[in-house]
Every structure is written in C-alpha cells, then in structure tokens.
Amino acid sequence: MPTAQSETAENQALSVIGRPIPRVDGPLKVSGTATYTSDHNFPGMLYAVPVPSTIAKGTIAALDTSAAEKMPGVRAVFHRENIGRFFRVPPNDDFSIVIDENRPPFEDDTIRYYGQYVALTVADTLEQAQAAADAVKVTYDEETPDVRTKLTQEQEPKVGSQRGDATAAFNTAPIKVDQTYVTPAETHNPIELHATVAVWDGTRFTLYETTQSIKNHQLAVSAMLGVPPENVRIVSRFLGSGFGGKLWPWTHDVLTAAAARALNRPVKLVVDRKMMFQTVGHRPLTQQRIRLGATTNGKLVSTQHDSLNHSSILDDYDEGCAEATPHLYRCPNLRVTSGVVHLNVGTPTSMRGPGAVPGLFALESAMDELAVKLNIDPVELRLRNDTEIDEALNLPFTSRHLKECLTVGAEKFDWHQRTPAVGSMKKDGLIVGWGMAAATWIANRLDCEATIELKADGSVRVACGTQDIGTGTYTMLAQMVGEALGIDPDKIQVVLGDSALPTGPLSGGSMATASLVPAVLEAAKKASEKVQFAATAAGPFSGQSVANLIFSNGRIHRKDQSPSDGVPYEQVLQAAKVSSVSGSGSSKGDFTDALGITKPKLSSHSFGTQFVEVTWQPEIARLRVSRTLTVIDGGRIINPRTGRNQIEGAVVMGVGMALFEHTIYDDQHHGAPINSNLADYVVSTHADAPAMDVVFLDYPDTHLNAFGARGIGEIGLAGVAPAIASAVYHATGVRVRELPIRIEDLLG
C-alpha cells in the first residue's frame, strides 16, 4: 500500500479525473456575469430585425420599403437589390466547411419556405427596427406549398450498409415484424435565442455568435462574405445551449455582418422565438419501415431498415436514421436504405442524437414488438442478439459493454419483478407499465490544438478554440490539465470561445471531450519539460541533468526523490527568473465509419440501455413517466456530476420527444409552423421530469485517447422514446408507432 510520500503522479492525477467537482463557470452563470452573445453592447450599436416571408411557396412580386425607410431611427432597409453579394460555400468532401442552408440570403425572389428572410431593417433601437420591419410591404405571387406529413419515395432510395440477402431471409423467417414508425418535425428550443453581434473595423469582422463550432463558423462566414478567414474573428464564450441547432451558420449571421460593413456601425440581431421555428433548422419528420425476421428462439436472421425524412426544396439533408442499425445486433442479413423528400419547409439540421435517436425509436420499438410475438423477455431478446464485432465493418469494437448495460440495468431496475401481461402490474391504484430499449452512439475524435501556460505566480492557463455549450467543457478542461500536471483545478484558468485561439473541435456529436484529451496531454508534457529545463538553470537543481528530473504533482524532483520532496514548479520558475513557460499540443481526428473519412481498424461506439416506468390512470386518462434508469457504457467519465447532468437533461428531453414535441405545419393555408411559441409547442418541464437514476459503467476506452473518455451528450437521449412507448404498451395494450404519444391514441 503506497504511502502519501510514495504516491505516484498517476495516482495523484486519478483524484482529479473522476471527481464530481462543481462547474468552474458556475459562479459566473448564477451571478449573471457570464456574457452571452446578446449581452454584448458597443458604442453606436444598431439593431437589426429580419422581415420573414408570410408564404411558403411563390415569388416576390413587389417589395415596398419606402414607408419603413422614412420611420424614426431607421438607418437602412436591406434587401436583394442593395445588400451586396453573398457567395455560396464551395463544395467540400472533407467536411472542412459545413452549412445546412446552402442558398445565401436574398439570392433570388423565390420563396421556398415560410419565414424565409426577404429584407432586413436596421435602426437605432430594437423597437424602431421592429416597427420598420412591420412596415415593409411585400406582395407575393403565391403557390400552394407542400408541407405534407405522409412521405412518399421521390427517387431511388440510397442503399447504405448491407450484407447477405435480407429480403430472402425475411421471406423465409418463421417470425416477422413489419411496421412503419413516424417521428414528427421537432424544433430546437434552447433558452438562449440565436443571435449575432457584428463589429466591422474597416478591414476585419469580429462576430459575437451563438455557435457550437467557432472554427467552422469562421470559415463558412468568411467564404460567404468573400473575405479571408483571418479577417473574420468569431467569439462565443458562453452558449445557452444549442442541441445541434447552433452547429452551423444560418442566414442571419451573414446578414448582420453585411449590415455592419455597409453602415460601419456595430449591429446586433437576435432571432425571436417565432423565427426559431422557421429559419434555424429543426429535426426533420422521419418515416421508417422496419422489417425484422427471426427464428423461433429469437435469433435475428434479417433486418431491413428503410427511412425517409423531409428536407427543404434546395437542400438534401439526410437524417441518417439507420446509423445504429448495422452494428447494434448480430444479424447475418441486413439492408438499410434512406431517401429525402423535398418540402416547403426550412432546411433541417442536427438535433441531439441526429439519426440514431429517431432511428432507434423505430428499431427498438420493432424489437419490443418482436419480443411480444416471441413471448421472450425484451432484455433477454437483446442479450441473445448481442455481437462481439461490428458486422457492418467486420471489425472488433474498441470497447463494447452492451451486455453489462442490459444486465446491470435489469438488476437495478428490479426487472425480474416485471409480469409481461398487458395491464398486469399495479401500484398505488395505478396501472404500471415497464419498458426498455438499447442505445448506442458513435465515438469519434476531431482535430484539436491547445496551449498550456505555467506561470511563476502558480497559476495555469489552458486555451483552446473550442466552446462550452453548457455541457461542462470549461470544467472538464480544468480537470484534464489538473490530471496531466497534478495541479488543483482551482488554479487553472480555462480560456475558450474565440477563433483567435488554437483551433479546437466543434461541440457536437459527443466528440469534443475525446478530441481535447490528446492535445491537452501533449501541451502539458511540453510545458512541464520547459519547467525541467528552467530548473537546471538556477535553484536547487542548478547544473543537474534534465534527464534526472521529473515533473509530477506540480513539482520538480529528482528521480530518486518522491514528488512530495520536490520543489513547486512556480518556485522553480521564480528562481530561474522566468515569468512563464508554455507548451502546445495537437492531434488529428479519428473518424471511423460514421462519415467515411478514413478506413478504420476498429469500430468505436458508446452503448447504453434505458429502463422506464409509466403510470396509467384510465379513469381520467392520465399518463405519466414516473421512473427511469439509464445505464451508460461511455468510457471513462471525466466528471460524474456534469456527466449525470448530461444524461438527466437528455432523459427529460426524451420524455418531451415521446409525449409532447411536434412542430405542426399549416397544410391548409400558407405552410407556416403554427405552434411556433413555447405555449403551443409543448416541452417537458420540471413537473414532467420523472425520478431519474444514472449508472456509468466506467470502462476506459483508450483507443480514442489516453484517458479512455468518450462523449455522452447524445447517447442519453437515444432509446428513451422507444422505452417509453414500450412501457405505454405494457400498461395500456396500445402500440403507438407515431410520436408523440397522445392521450387520444390511448382512448380507443
């Protein structure tokens, strides 16, 4: 048993990683001093308000801005004729620049979705800009929009993963499930609205943005404005969440920048809540047919997953619903296809767990239906079809513990007490239903750079051009550096959210954490080596060989000494009369099969299970999600507190997906999203939150990084909706295959 004196740097570091320390940015947020995008104000700042179209299909016949231009405080009304030129982002196959709505604003007079911006007013105050926007008169040649909710294949489906002969195997399978599942359009509703504050100094733009990817934002906006990337600086130090809707730039970004350049004044634009339903993306409507063929003992012999999703008229957004299907279960015959249906809606975009979340609603619902047909317990069915390799790639997994997720979850949830008959379980006078589903999400790493500066005053500064979208990146970076150097995270200053910093990863796809680790470790190593060199110049180690010195636990010591006998690094720098030393680190991305960038040698994914209890009171038609358990195999957990926050937030979002959320387009008149507010678009509240339990298996996956950490932001939502739907079936006997589950569905 090592003593305190002999404790190694590695063991000391373990007390940093895995600690549930509070968020380092928490005091700023709870005190109201964290500066979000719309909080930025500058002398002479003007305010911009877009003018949205009031039809979803047609052309602009006339645009009359004369009245608006004469109103008090109005500085300009921009439109197609006077805004200047925007450029399209050039095609790129390496995902170096991503933008969802490829058509630049004001490019033509054609209206393709309700709310498309047709003009922009700029005035001294927000109220003046809004009044001017209301005064702009637009005449349209309107056509009937297509905003249907029943999708039909428009073209030959795109075939994704396939193996064996899925059709023949299905036709001969003794047990079959063949059903269609639908998830509606869902709208991101972060509390912080999309916003841009643009400052132009005559040469360079500084754009304060609500973005989950400052580097991509810089490249995309510079391309659309026609200026070099070095002339665009993006700042996003705090984000009031994004859920994927803030991953890529939208049309308001370049409009604000162009207005600031034209007027040579800072300009602020905040997208209002109604516009959030129109012009900044959403999860698309999906329609998925699942065909499962199995033997009588529950072994899958055929899996077919055919999905359609809607997109906008000009953009081919593919939700990728079958992302998880090829690797989740063992099955010799599989075929997945996808198709896009173009409607008069705004361009969809990523929403938490894109592809896998709606896809798993279909697949896991079908697995539950198969379990019922076979009279096999749903957990047991999944255990019988577990796999040790990714059959889509014929590669082993870097780490896969789905079996443990299933067994640990079943034990902790007391699944053995479940009786399978519909409506057979009761508690406190209520009918109880139990359901479960498996979950999975890709685990990848992006390019990353970071710098670490060790200062003679004992503080540490780590900088990276990534961003914290509310998930805890500030805190995790402090812990990573603390682990690498053996230094208390309280002494570490984390600097994020600026494209002028070393290039960091986007905050999406649960890839930021895994991406940061290698770059941070390299930077820490280089910075600590410079302290060792400084130690040989003066002080107790003067003249000694660098090779004989070690940096650990924030101290310099000889190899024959314990860390506790060493000299604090700040004293070493002071003795050497060095104010600070710094180190830089970088690492390349490690994409596997998800985006097809490189040919992988191993398959890397996270896994999990969701267990759900619902209560049903038929006398008053009251359904509640009362209890959930989530078990996650997500590698090593950097911070259990922020990790649990991630999963709990995702579960509450899953309750909303299953029971409430549904963007409704008016298919009788102008094609508008008609529930475009937080009164009519219902989301889960604290009152709807169930009792939640979260278990992390904590198996480190060192394929992605030395800490063995994978991201967990997306997987917490995966599987929640199908588990709820299965629990609802168990309680009521009604199989709901189209979300959200409505009381009307259960009254038949």
How would you characterize this protein structure?
This protein has a 7-stranded mixed β-sheet with strand order 3-5-1-12-9-10-11, with helices on both faces. Strands 7-15-14-13-8 form a 5-stranded mixed β-sheet, sandwiched between helices. Residues 1-14 and 592-597 have low confidence and may be disordered. Helix content is 25%, strand content 24%. Helix 10 (356-374) runs parallel beside helix 17 (720-732), helix 13 packs parallel to helix 14 (512-535) and helix 16 (640-659) packs across helix 17. The longest helix is centred in the C-terminal third of the chain and has 24 residues, at 512-535. The protein is globular, with a radius of gyration of 28 Å. By secondary structure, it is α+β, with helices and mostly antiparallel strands.
Task: List segments where confidence is low: pLDDT < 50 over at least 5 consecutive residues.
Answer: 1-14, 592-597
Shape: globular
Q: Report strand %.
A: 15-25%
Largest sheet, strands/sense/barrel: 7 strands, mixed
Query: Helicity, in percent?
Result: 10-25%
Q: List the total number of helices.
A: 18
Terminal-residue CA separation: 66 Å
CATH architecture of the domain at 388-444 and 592-748: 2-Layer Sandwich
How many whole angstroms does the radius of gyration measure? 28 Å
How many E-type strands?
29
Overall pLDDT level: 95
Adjacency order of strands in the biggest sheet: 3-5-1-12-9-10-11
CATH top level of the domain at 388-444 and 592-748 is Alpha Beta
The CATH superfamily label of the domain at 388-444 and 592-748 reads Aldehyde oxidase/xanthine dehydrogenase, molybdopterin binding domain
Category by helix and strand content: alpha+beta
